[in-house]
Every structure is written in C-alpha cells, then in structure tokens.
Amino acid sequence: MKLKDSNTEERIMEAAKAVFMKYGLYGARMQDIADTAKINKALLHYYFRNKEKLFDQVFDGALSRYFEQMEVIHDDSLPILERILIYVVQIIDFLSEYPQMSMFIIKEISINEKLFKEKVHKIKRNKNANILTILEKSRKFNEIPDIDPVLFLIHLHSLCSYPFLAAPIFKVITENSNIPFHDPSNLKLKQSVKDYVIYTLTKKSI
Amino acid sequence: MKLKDSNTEERIMEAAKAVFMKYGLYGARMQDIADTAKINKALLHYYFRNKEKLFDQVFDGALSRYFEQMEVIHDDSLPILERILIYVVQIIDFLSEYPQMSMFIIKEISINEKLFKEKVHKIKRNKNANILTILEKSRKFNEIPDIDPVLFLIHLHSLCSYPFLAAPIFKVITENSNIPFHDPSNLKLKQSVKDYVIYTLTKKSI
DNA sequence: TCATAGTTTAACCAAATGGTTAACGTTTGT
DNA sequence: ACAAACGTTAACCATTTGGTTAAACTATGA
To answer: Cα(A130)–Cα(B90) distance, rounded to whole angstroms?
Structure first.
C-alpha cells in the first residue's frame, strides 16, 4: 500500500499550472516550476518524464475544463432564455475563478496550432448540450428571433471573457487613477450581459 | 551621408515584431529573430545592443499605436453617437490589421506588470480626446442615457477585441467543421456592434 | 530486522541561449 | 586612391536550460 504522506506530485502539478499559465510552454522554466513547488528539479522528471509531458497534462486539464464550461449549457428543462442567462452566470463565475485560463489556452493554441487541433476536436464532442447546437435548434423552432447564432455566441463570449482577458491592462490603467469602477462578485457585469441577452433574444423577436 | 541600400535595421524590427508578438519576451529566441530577418545574429546586438532593448522598441511602438487607436476618439464636431460609431469602425479596422497586438500587450503586461506601469501611464495622457473622458462628459450633459460609462466602454472593447483575441480558437474549432460563419471585412461584426451602441445610447434614454 | 521498492537529492552533462570579439568587407568623404 | 567609419560574419564564450545518474534516504511488507 502506498502512503502519500508528501503530496509531491500534486504540488508539482499546481506549480506547473501556475508557471505554464504565466509564461507558456516556451517561456516556462523547469527550475521555476521546481522552485514554486519547493521540490528538487529532478522530481519533475521522475514524476512527469519531461517538460512536454508535464505541459500536456496541464494543458489537457485546462482545455477540457474550459470547453466543459464554455460549450456546455445545462438545465434543458427550462426555456431557452433562462438557460442562456444561467449559462452567462456559469461562464462568468468560471472565468472569475480561473482568470488566466482563456489567455493560456488561446495563446498556446496560437503558438502551436497544428499540435492542438486534434486535442481541441477530441474534446468538443458533447453535441447534445452544445450551446451552438441548442441555439440553432431554438432558431429553427422560432423560439428566438432571426439572429445569427454564431455572431450572437461570439458577442456573448466577448462580453463575458474580455473583462478577464484584459484584466492586466485594466489593473495597470485604473491604479493611481480615479476611474470609477468596482464590481465585486461581478454583479454589474453579470446583470449587464444578461440585459444584452434579454434584449437580443426578446426585443428583436417582436 | 549614409546610404541605406540594405535595410538591415528595418528588417530586424519587422522580424522582432513577429517573433516577440508570437512568443513574448521570455519565449522569443534571438536566433529565431535573426533567422526570420535573414541576417547574422550579431547584427541584432550591433543595432539594438541586447534582447531587452530590442524588445522595448517593439513593445513601446506597439503600446503607443495600441492606445492611440483604442483610447482616442475623433471627429469632435459630430454628435456623440456618430463619434462612437466611427470609433467602433476605427477599432475593428485597427485590430483587423494587427490581430495579434491586443494579445501581445495584455500578455506582456500580465507577465511583467511593474515594469510596464510607467510605460502605460506615460502614453495614456491625451485627455482631450480620451474616449472615457468624452463619455463621462456626454453623460454629465445628458446627451446619453444614465449608463455606467466604464462598463459601457468595457463592453464596447469586449465586442470589438475578443473576436480577434480568440481567433486562434475559432480557427481551430471551425476548421473541418460546418459552423456557418464568414465575415469578410468584418462587416457583420461592425454592424452588430454598432447596433449594440445605438441600442444602448438611444433606447435606454427613453 | 532486513531486503525491497519507492522517493529524494546533489552532482553532472550536452545542448541551447544571449552576448562578445576580432577579422573581414563595404561605403564614403576627401 | 585611400583611410576612416560603417556594416557583416564566423568563431567563440559564459550562463542557462532540460535532462540524467548514481547514491542516499525512507517507508513497507515479510
């Protein structure tokens, strides 16, 4: 029986997440990960063989969690409008918890597009609860106005994701400035995006 | 008189832009820049002394161009609504021409926040035509409805920027898929964002 | 208790990296 | 034409980097 008195492997993963998310595959340093995890560098290779393997575990985990949150819409018993409003809150809460994740995934995909193609396609296969599929079906049944579902989805993700993506800029700009904006728990953001959804999915249908 | 028969310096700058924008300061390799520019690696140091100096030139140029486009609103003789609609087109056209620039600036600031603070503050000083200043003034004079100018601006930038930020994901997802979305010259995007602006700045005022 | 397997460490290695140098080539003003 | 300044190159250097190894340490089961 193995005893996990010292959770070295987990600490490496946590450190690897932090360092890879900040610096990316190329920019990250194994020594940096080891220092962050407070373990000997050789243990990185003992547990994860090499940098690519370690990165893959971090990236795969991030990718599946990301698409699970961004692509899957729940509560299929509710009307489409309610479902999307819940989806908005779901996304914002998720991005609020992992604010660096969008940036990480987008950046790494842009650097090594070919390598990640199959990974992305392997993951996004939950057709039943896919947000775009649901939107297109609702459109077909005239449950929502005659809008472009793809463009609507892009806007929705824009409104939810960009504030977290651009947070580093906002932080630098607003510090030492008197720009009046505070949004604890993202309440204003959520309400404002919800307003947009309601307007787009109801107003235009009249 | 100096003759610039071989424009080595320019070619280095172009190569440096490409490589730094893709990999960032940490991830970029001087040899990669030299290869891209098709010159000897030593010339990088001959013209730009070292990696940090070269990066600074690239980053400073990007930063000033970025804030010039994202922060400055023109045509001060027009009504505020028209000005913002032109501003939307200005931003989208700019991001369309330099799709990697947002990502580059955000990422580098997030990695080295402290170093870039003064740079950002040095640049954003064009108070007269600052978009937020204009919005707040229009709000004060009741030219626009009672909305939060900062939140409105965040939404505006979200709608304009995110499609280019997330382009690497879209590309991977839509390839080999039958997702129906094509937007040459970003016409749909522009119109849709304009619609949002018009709705927000007129509808709510009633 | 003791041998075995699993875990951790310091020392080490080869390759890659940012940077330098000295020699060579080219342009330019006189 | 020619020397000085400018531009370019290959070879080189010190450090950093990802990765390995052999020895040491620790827990476990018999």
So the answer is: 34
Measured CA to CA in angstroms, residue A88 lies from A74, A79, B163, B167 at distances of: 11, 15, 18, 21
Strand C bases near protein CB (under 7 Å) are 6-11, 16-22, 27-29
The span from the CA of B103 to the CA of B23, in Å, is: 11
Q: How far apart are CA B67 and CA B122, in angstroms?
A: 11
Strand, coil or helix: what is B72? strand
Residue type at A181 in one-letter notation: F
The answer to whether A157 contacts B151, with C-beta atoms less than 8 Å apart, is: no
What is the number of other CB atoms lying within 10 angstroms of the CB of residue A177?
11
Q: Where are the beta strands (DSSP E) in B88-186?
A: none
Beta strand residue intervals within B75-165, DSSP E: none
Taking CA atoms, what residue in A is nearest to B179?
Answer: A150
Determine contact: B30 vs chain A, CB below 8 A: no
Q: Domains, chain B, ranges and CATH?
A: 1-49 (1.10.10.60), 55-205 (1.10.357.10)
Chain A neighbors of B26, CB-CB under 8 A:
23-24, 26-27
* pLDDT digit string, tens, across residues A110-129: 999 987 888 888 887 666 78
Nearest to B105 by CA among A98, A167, A163: A167
A158 to chain B, closest Cα gap in Å: 5
* Identity of the amino acid at A108: E
Separation CA A33–CA B159 (nearest Å): 36
pLDDT in tens, B160-194: 999 999 999 999 999 878 888 899 999 999 999 99
CA of B97 to C1' of D5 (A): 40
Contact yes or no for A157 and B166 at CB 8 A: yes
* Predicted confidence (pLDDT) at residue B127 exceeds the cutoff of 80: no
